[in-house]
Design brief:
38% helix; seven-stranded mixed β-sheet; single chain; alpha/beta
Length: 399
C-alpha cells in the first residue's frame, strides 16, 4: 500500500516506516546524540542540510517523528519544535517581517494573544483581531501589507468552530498565508489542509503525545514552506530533543484509538452537563445547540475531547466545582489519557487582560474539561458529585 493512500489510523501507527518486511527494529531507534561523525571535510559539507550533521539542524529520530505527523495530517512535510508556542512563534517570525500585518481571530489561546498583542509590536508587526467566523469583518481588516490569516479551531476554551472552507478561500483571494492551531481538532477529527489551509499547527504536548509526559510543537504543510521554516528553526535553535521525538512517535501510534474514546466520552459528558440544573451553558461542537454545530458536523468526524461549561453561579462556585472533582485532576494542559479540569481565567488565559478575556467571551464561571479515556459513567458520576458543591441554581440554559 502506498503511503499516500493510508488512512489516518494506519499512518499514525506506521508513520514513516514502510509496510514491507525489513530486517531491523520494530521500534524507531533513538539517536540520542548532538553531533555526527564524518569521514572527511567534503562529506562534512554535504551533510549540512541532512539529519546527520548536528541535532539542531536535524536528527534521524526527529525526521521519523516529522514524517509521521505529516502522514497523519495528509500533507507533504512537517517540522517539530520544543513546544507548541515555540512552533507558533518560530513560524510567525520566519514568515513575517517588520512592517507586515496579520489578521487573527479574537478567540485564541491566551499565550498566542499575548504574543500577538505584546511581542509582535516590538518587532514592527501589527495584529488586527476579528470575531470568529465573521468573514466580512475579516475581509475589512485586510490591508495591503497583510501577510497572514491566523486561525484556531476549535477554539480554546469556548470551542467555536471556524468554517475552514470560507477561511481558506478568503486567504487565497487576498494572497495571504493561512495558519491554524488545530490542537483541539486533532488530525483524527479534522484535516484543515484538505480545505486549503497552508500551515497546520499542533501543540504535540496534547493529543499527539497523549500521556502528559512530553512537551513539543509541530507545524505541517507544503515542503517549500517547511524548508523556509527549517532555516528559521535552525537559526533560533527552537529544536526538539531526539528522546522527545521518540516519545512523540510512540504517542502517535495510539492517537486514533485514544481520540475515538475521548470523542465518545466528551459527547456523553456534554449531554449530561447540558441537562444539569446547576450548569448555565455548555460549549461542545457536537451539541445541536452549539452555534457552529452545522459547520462542525460538516468538517469534523468527531467533536473532540474538550468540553467547557459555565456554572450557574459565581467564579467561586466554578472554583469549588473544579476542586471537588476526584477523577478529573485539577491541572493545566489537555489531551492526555487522564481527564483534567481547569479554570481558563486562572490558567490558559490568565496571562492576558480581563478586558481581552471579556472580548473573547471567557468568564470566571467557565470550567474547562479535558475528557480522557476512563469509563464514561465514572466521569459523569464525578461531575454530578462536584456540581453538588454549587449553591441552588436559579435558571438554566445550554448552548
Amino acid at each position: 500500500m502506498k503511503r499516500k493512500n493510508r488512512r489516518p489510523e494506519t499512518a499514525a501507527v506506521h508513520g514513516a516506516a514502510e509496510l514491507e518486511k525489513k530486517n531491523g527494529p520494530v521500534g524507531t531507534p533513538i539517536y540520542q546524540t548532538s553531533t555526527f561523525e564524518v569521514t572527511d571535510n567534503d562529506e562534512q559539507q554535504r551533510v549540512t542540510t541532512t539529519d546527520r550533521y548536528y541535532t539542531r539542524w536535524g536528527n534521524p529520530t526527529i525526521t521519523v517523528a516529522e514524517q509521521s505527523v505529516a502522514a497523519v495530517e495528509g500533507v507533504e512535510a512537517a517540522l517539530t519544535f520544543a513546544s507548541g508556542m515555540g512552533a507558533i512563534t518560530c513560524t510567525i517570525l520566519g514568515l513575517l517581517k517588520a512592517g507586515d500585518h496579520l489578521v487573527a481571530q479574537r478567540e485564541v489561546y491566551g499565550g498566542v494573544a499575548k504574543f500577538f498583542s505584546q511581542w509582535l509590536p516590538k518587532m514592527g508587526i501589527e495584529t488586527t483581531f476579528v470575531d470568529t467566523n465573521d468573514f466580512k469583518q475579516m475581509a475589512r481588516a485586510i490591508r495591503p501589507n497583510t501577510k497572514m490569516l491566523y486561525l484556531e479551531s476549535p477554539t480554546n476554551p469556548s470551542l467555536r468552530v471556524v468554517d475552514l472552507k470560507q477561511a481558506a478561500a478568503l486567504a487565497r483571494e487576498h494572497r495571504l498565508i493561512s495558519m491554524i492551531d488545530s490542537t483541539f481538532g486533532t488530525p483524527i477529527n479534522q484535516h484543515p489542509a484538505e480545505y486549503g489551509i497552508d500551515i497546520v499547527m499542533h501543540s504535540g504536548t496534547k493529543y499527539l503525545s497523549g500521556h502528559a509526559d512530553l512537551t513539543c510543537g509541530v507545524v505541517c504543510g507544503r515542503q517549500e514552506m517547511m524548508d523556509q521554516l527549517w532555516e528559521t528553526r535552525t537559526t533560533l535553535g527552537n529544536c526538539m530533543d531526539p528522546h522527545a521525538a521518540w516519545m512523540l512517535i510512540r504517542g502517535l501510534k495510539t492517537v486514533a484509538v485514544r481520540v475515538a474514546r475521548q470523542n465518545e466520552n466528551a459527547l456523553r459528558v456534554a449531554e449530561f452537563l447540558s441537562r444539569h440544573e446547576k450548569v448555565r451553558r455548555v460549549h461542545y461542537p457536537f451539541l445541536k445547540s452549539h452555534p457552529d454545530y452545522a459547520v462542525a458536523r460538516e468538517q469534523m468526524s468527531g467533536g473532540g475531547g474538550m468540553v467547557t461549561f459555565e456554572v450557574e453561579g459565581t467564579g467561586e462556585d466554578a472554583r469549588r466545582v473544579s476542586e471537588s472533582m476526584r477523577l478529573f485532576t485539577l491541572a493545566t494542559s489537555l489531551g492526555g489519557v487522564e481527564s483534567l479540569v481547569s479554570i481558563p481565567v486562572l490558567t490558559s488565559h490568565a496571562m492576558i487582560s480581563a478586558e481581552l478575556r471579556a472580548q473573547m467571551g471567557v468568564n470566571e464561571q467557565m470550567v474547562r474539561l479535558s475528557v480522557g479515556i476512563e469509563n464514561g459513567d465514572d466521569l459523569i458520576e464525578d461531575l454530578e458529585r462536584a456540581l453538588a458543591a454549587v449553591g441552588t441554581a436559579v435558571g438554566v440554559s445550554s448552548s
